[in-house]
C-alpha cells in the first residue's frame, strides 16, 4: 500500500462508488477502501439475516418470511427518475450494461386523506379526481404550456420570463387553486417544502417537464420511475466494476482506515500500519468527523408486508408523497414500496418504507400518517439517521466529502450532490448530454 494514487475514496456508498467510477474513467489512479466487508455503506441492501443483526441482534428472522437470501432491503430506499441525471450517469459511463431495471407501477399523492394517482399530462389531469371540473380546465392549460415550453424558443414562452417570474406568479396566471399547486409542487416537481414558490419559475418548470419526459420515456409505463432488479445495492457494485475495469483498486474490510494530513491537507490514508499516498481524498461524512456537521435527521420505518399498499391498484412498486400541508408538517412524508416482482423479497412479500425529515423530539410519531396507509404490517423496524454535510468544499484541505442521504424516495438530490462533488474535484462539470438516456431500457 505504499503506492502513490491520484485519489483515495473512502466508503462504498452509492455516491462514493459513482465518483470512483467517474474518476477512473477520467484516467486517474484510484484506490477505494471501506471499513465494511460489503459494498454499499449507508446505501447498502441487506438480506434478512443482516437486517435482523442490525435491528434485532441475537434473534432469528421468522421462517414465515421465507429465505434470507431472497431479500434485498435498501437502507436508503429511492426510485430512479427514468429520464433523470442518475440514468444519464449510468448511460454516460456504460454502467447500465451491468444492471437490469423494471418500471415502477405507480406514483401517488395524498389529497384530503385519500391516496390519488398523480396526473402528469393534460389528458390525465382531465380524468383526475384531484380536481373539480373548472380546475381541470385551468390545470390542462397549465400542463399544455409546460409541455410546449422550450427555454431556447421565445415563441413558446407566451410572454412570460420564467427566469424572473416566481413560480407563485406562474401559478397565479393560470388561476390554480392551493390543492392543485400542492400536488404539482411536491409530487411532480418533487420539492420538499414550499420555499420554491418565491423563487424563479424556470427550475420548477424544468423539473415538471423532467417528470413528464420520464413518464413518457418507456412505452406503457404508469410512473416516471424505474428501479433495479435485486435492489439498490446493485448500483454501488456496478460502479465498483466500472472503476476496476479502468484500473481502480478495491480494499474492503479496513475498519481502521484513517485520513493522514500534512500541513492541514489530506495526503493519504493509513490502515494496518501502512499509508497509501494520494493527491486528494473523497469519502462519506463518517470518515471525516471533524469536517462535517449535522444539518438534519431522517426517520425511516422499514416494513415487511404480505400485500400491496391499499388504494394503489394492487401496485407491486409505488411511491406515495404526502405533501407537508396535507399532514400539517414543514416537510413532506415519503412512502416507498417494492416487492418480490423486483427480486427484493420472497414470493408474495412486499417491503414498504416511510420516511421524513425529523421535526420533533418524537420522530416515530412523525411517520404515523404514512404508516396509516400501509394496512397490516408483518414486521417493522425504525431508525433515525443523522444527515451530515461537509463544512468546506474540499479545495483547501483536499478532503472532498459527500452529503448524507435525505428523506426523499427518489434519486434527484443524490445525483445533484455527486455532480457537485465531481465539479469540485475536477474543476469541470460532467457532460451528461453526450449519450442518449433511452438506452437504459427497462426489463419487461
From TrEMBL:
One of its GO terms (cellular component) is cytoplasm. GO terms for biological process: protein transport; small GTPase-mediated signal transduction; vesicle-mediated transport. Pfam families: GDI. Signal peptide: none annotated. GO terms for molecular function: Rab GDP-dissociation inhibitor activity. Belongs to the Rab GDI family. This is Guanosine nucleotide diphosphate dissociation inhibitor. It comes from [Myrmecia] bisecta.
